[in-house]
Specification:
The chain is of the alpha/beta class. Helix content is 38%, strand content 16%. It has 18 helices and 19 strands. It has a nine-stranded parallel β-sheet, sandwiched between helices. The chain has a five-stranded mixed β-sheet with strand order 10-18-17-13-12. Helix 10 packs across helix 11 (292-300) and helix 14 (392-403) runs antiparallel to helix 15. The longest helix has 21 residues, at 257-277. It starts with a helix and ends in a 15-residue tail after the last strand.
């Protein structure tokens, strides 16, 4: 979706919206850490996030890769910077074609800074001289597909600001405004400003834009002060005016990084309050890849709550233009959403309203991608799971510790720790894990909880949500046989079980039966059922679930290690089972596990 459409929608409802900017890190560990941080920040539902291009196009390939992951795996509306520096037209079109094919619709069109080691921008042969050329090219070549954002400079472009700390001349400022209007007239539909620290200058800039006929939204770019030297470096590079009261406040604390950061949060909060009080309802935070200051400002403004994160669905809604209407998924990938997206990325149509016949679409084959891990996550998994295993009881202990929250990682989960709703049933999960039912996915029953519940809520306010209790686990054939017999005394329980080779045991009547296990009721809407248990998808999922025993856990040990051999034995002999308690009002899913 275009960012301008999201902002217009928010404006019509009088809602304040915010967004974050990130830049490509220089190392692989830095990229991993960025995505960890981004996941936490995106949970607060920014309108969009943007990723910079890098001076002289130095990070072009990495920017394209990060933008793709942001849009399709993190599932946040993504805006990619694109500059003219060192970019002939064929490279520009390659970048635009790439992001278009990945469902990204938003571009921030910039001239770009000079490459490292150069003082001035130089037009590359076969390239463009300025952002206006780039805007014209995008509109003439790609029509209305892209939402185009351009930069606005409240103090004028740095190139026309005197380098001795002075201001741009009135003539230079007016010329810069006129150029901005030409960019908007050429097809830009949004302006994001350069950083500033004098709010009055920004407000005057907005008024000046309106006076010359610029009507599109103008989003203030806010850069929290995180440390003194970084603040001086950025303001010096951008030739940003520093009000005397800010200099006076920073001077006595400049060597106290914690005090500087606290002041930066206070200043950023007050700047935003003044901007909001003047009727501007959009904020863009230059994070410098740091989360604490940006989130603290938003919390001070009451725009987010640390303990209350709203969800439009039980899983993060896609932002890719090809699957924005998707609203139904099998529950099996609840803890591995990126894997699910990667295995369904080629579908021509995504389920909307009802799951329907899943056999109409083919899941992608397992590849190395489903088993890749960020380095930091890989280290955590190794520390927590690569312990000596003497027997299956040691395996049970790993699962038990994870369910009780004593471990933060699991080979079967891409997430950091347990889902919040798991705390409702973690004692029961701990009990069955200790009995050899090794759980990898679950949800408690919910009967008409308010949709804004911080633990189980989704879909926004004024609705009610429902869930059937569900648990998925590995167990031995002997335990499964006993469980199947016991299920005969529980008429509302349905189960499916399969081993690595595909042997199937179930009391579900048909392979085509689809069981809705999560649904919501909202004013003036049809019932939404975003999570299902589907036999066909379960057979696809079982290959991935069993493969994790070897590629997700056993490979943490050296070849020939007894622990590795034990895990491979469990992989080849256990069954993967899912169990649904269809009586979500009075049922007790865990009653069937008593007396084991």
């Amino acid at each position: 979706m275009k960012v301008i459409e999201k902002i217009r929608e928010a404006e019509s409802g009088g809602k304040v919206v915010f967004s974050f900017e990130f830049f490509p890190p220089k190392t692989e560990d830095g990229v991993d850490n960025l995505f960890d941080r981004m996941e936490r920040m995106v949970a607060h539902n920014p309108t969009f996030c943007d990723i910079t291009w890098g001076a002289g196009g130095s990070t072009a390939d990495l920017t394209l890769e990060i933008a793709n992951r942001m849009q399709n795996m993190v599932c946040v509306e993504t805006m990619m910077h694109l500059t003219c520096t060192n970019m002939p037209v064929d490279k520009i079109d390659h970048a635009l074609d790439h992001i278009k094919s990945n469902g990204i619709q938003n571009v921030l069109a910039l001239r770009g800074d000079p490459p490292h080691g150069q003082d001035k921008f130089v037009q590359v042969q076969g390239g463009f001289a300025c952002a206006l050329d780039l805007v014209n090219h995008i509109r003439s070549t790609y029509g209305d597909y892209f939402g185009i954002t351009v930069a606005g400079y409240p103090e004028a472009h740095p190139d026309v600001i005197q380098s001795d700390g002075g201001l741009a001349t009135p003539e230079a400022y007016q010329s810069d405004l006129a150029y901005l209007k030409r960019k908007v007239d050429a097809g830009a539909d949004l302006i994001v400003t350069q950083l500033f620290y004098d709010t009055d200058i920004f407000l005057k800039f907005v008024n000046d834009c309106r006076q010359i006929g610029i009507t599109c939204p103008i989003v203030p770019g806010i850069m929290p002060i995180n440390n003194y030297r970084g603040f001086l470096r950025m303001t010096g590079f951008c030739k940003t005016k520093i009000p005397s009261e800010i200099t006076a406040a920073l001077e006595p604390i400049k060597d106290n990084e914690e005090a500087v950061r606290a002041y930066g949060i206070h200043l950023g909060t007050e700047m935003c309050r003044k901007i909001l009080a003047n009727g501007i309802k959009t904020l863009h935070l230059y994070t410098l890849n740091m989360e604490k200051s940006a989130l603290a400002i938003l919390m001070n403004l009451g725009l987010i709550e640390e303990a209350k994160i709203s969800r439009s669905l039980p899983w993060r809604r896609p932002t890719n233009v090809f699957r924005v209407k998707e609203d139904v998924r099998p529950i099996f990938w609840a803890n591995r959403p990126k894997s699910y997206i990667s295995r369904t990325i080629g579908w021509e149509q995504y389920p909307q309203g009802r799951w329907g016949d899943s056999r109409n679409a083919s899941y992608g084959a397992l590849t190395d991608y489903q088993f890749m891990r960020a380095r930091t996550r890989g280290r955590k998994l190794h520390d927590e799971w690569a312990v000596p295993l003497k027997d299956v009881e040691d395996i049970h202990e790993r699962f038990l510790k994870y369910c009780l929250g004593n471990l933060r990682s699991s080979p079967w989960s891409e997430l950091d720790g347990l889902q919040p709703e798991t705390q409702i049933i973690n004692e029961q999960l701990g009990s069955i894990n200790s009995k050899g039912f090794l759980t990898i996915n679950s949800q408690p029953s919910v009967n008409g909880a308010k949709s804004d519940s911080p633990i189980v809520g989704w879909g926004g306010p004024d609705g009610y949500v429902y869930q059937k209790a569900y648990v998925e686990f590995f167990c031995s054939k002997e335990k499964l046989n006993t469980l199947v017999e016991k299920c005969k005394s529980f008429p509302f329980l349905t189960y499916m079980a399969v081993n690595k080779e595909g042997s199937w045991i179930s009391n579900v009547r048909s392979q085509s039966d689809v069981n809705a296990v999560t649904w919501g009721v909202f004013p003036a809407k049809e019932i939404i059922q975003p999570t299902v248990v589907d036999p066909t998808s379960f057979m696809v999922w079982k290959d991935e679930a069993f493969e994790i025993w070897s590629r997700g856990w056993a490979q943490l040990y050296p070849d020939g290690d007894p622990s590795r051999k034990l895990l491979e034995q469990v992989q080849s002999s256990y069954f993967l089972v899912n169990l649904v308690e269809n009586d979500y009002v009075n049922g007790d899913l865990f009653a069937v596990f008593r007396d084991f």
